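Researcher: I'd like a structural prediction for the single chain below. Treat it as a standalone chain; there are no partners to consider.
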Amino acid sequence: MNVPFRWTFVIVALLATVGAIVVTADFPLAVGFAAVAVLAAGLALWDSLRTPEIEVAPTPAAAAPPEGGSEVWFASGEMGQEAIILLLDRVDRALVHPALPSRETAELEEISALPREEFLEYVEYRLAELEAAA
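Model: Treating it as a single chain, here is the predicted structure.
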């Protein structure tokens, strides 16, 4: 059943309940409305229990670099460039120089402020350096 039809049972149950309340003076008519209300409420409950939830097939997630990916970092200006520098330093510490000290803030800001072309050259140089050492 589709979603609009499901709500029909609930609406019929509510309307029949209101009808039974309104015509309380006419007992046989009120009992008829009450019976319709109970039947509609039962059908609404039965329909909600028998119909399985719609299962959505999971979409395969593409493997992405941590923290949003390099495309995001390169497009994020100086903050993204700082993230790239810190990632390169982390890789350098993990692969080549475990005792590499943390980069000074001034040096980090200076490298991050480089124009895009110069920054890309710096990144290529660091990557080549890491590849040669590993």
